Amino acid sequence: MALINAGLTTLYIVGVGCFMYYGNSIKIGKTNAFLAPIVLLLLLVMSASITGFLIFGKPALMYIDGKKKEALSLLAQTLTFFSIITFLAIILLVTFTR
User: Fold this and answer.
1) pLDDT beyond 90 at 98
2) What pLDDT is stored for residue 36 in this prediction?
3) Are 55 and 9 in contact (CB under 8 A)?
């Protein structure tokens, strides 16, 4: 379950990253200088909500149900897997940008 949570979080981040990277190539007309920062902040809040749910959702429910040890273990495992994925992404970035 921890690997699934970390994997889904990673997939969501990759999707948002691709949208941000390729978003400039989408021709939607003249950019509204007023709306651009609002949309960016909306995306930030939505991303924080989704990733928070993916990482903390199941452990929080388990903790509320009285399964405190299992909840903390799942959270620790999820964060460990996510840290490993992040570290591997950093290695890929450094390796392929030389």
Assistant:
1) no
2) 80
3) yes
3-state secondary structure of 3: helix
Mean pLDDT, the chain, integer? 92
> What is the tally of structural domains in the chain?
1
Burial profile 1-36: b = 16 or more Cβ within 10 angstroms, e = fewer: ebeebbeebbeebeebeeeeeeeeeeeeeeeeeeee
Residue matched to tokens 């902040």: 41
Q: Domain range spanning residue 63?
A: 2-96
Residue type, 65: D
> For the chain, first and last CA: distance in Å?
36
pLDDT at 26: 73
Among residues 57, 63, 43, which one has the least CA distance to residue 5?
Answer: 57
The residues, any chain, with a CB within 8 Å of residue 59's CB and separated by 6 or more, are 71, 72, 74, 75, 78
Is the CB of residue 75 less than 8 Å from the CB of residue 61? Answer: no
